[in-house]
Amino acid sequence: MNAIPSEIPDVMILEPRIFVDERGFFMETWNQKIFSRIGIPGTFVQDNHSKSAQGTLRGLHYQIQQPQGKLVRVTNGAVYDVAVDIRRSSPTFGRWVARTLTAENKLMMWVPPGFAHGFYVLSTEAEFTYKCTDFYAPKYERTIRWSDEDIGIDWPIPNGSAPLLSPKDAGGVAIGAAEVFD
Length: 182
Hints:
Blueprint: E1 2-5, E2 12-15, E3 18-21, E4 24-27, H1 32-37, E5 46-53, E6 57-63, E7 70-76, E8 78-85, E9 96-102, E10 108-111, E11 115-121, E12 125-132, E13 141-143, H2 167-170
Antiparallel strand pairs: 1-2, 2-10, 3-4, 5-12, 6-11, 6-13, 7-10, 7-12, 8-9, 8-11
């Protein structure tokens, strides 16, 4: 596993070793010993898998209590994946990191607790999977507005298009009004 530093040190881009032959490929997506060595905790309690249509934007989500670290990857299609630091005491508070994750490049992103997370679907459809360090707790879930100008995420949304949003995502709040971590 190759851990690639991002612009925010706590967020890591992970490039797995891929073994390819005439039958297809094999890759290890989780190994507690290796991931612990590179700074990713060894306890995951929940796996999630979503399928989304092109133009869907999910996020920016987080849980103010029971914060979740997420190890994310794409198994079909392509997404623009974003993590936003929402730890007020952090020197990178309000800054964001993004990478294009695809089924072809097989990159993964580690989004630690204390970050809001979201993604935009670039391909016709995309399947997105992620491991979580804590259980989903809807009463603690919060959403920051995907288009918050104070954060300034450069989403790759085609000009003249509007992303497909859930009511929850459409109702996200600005980072200045959001509950964030100390």
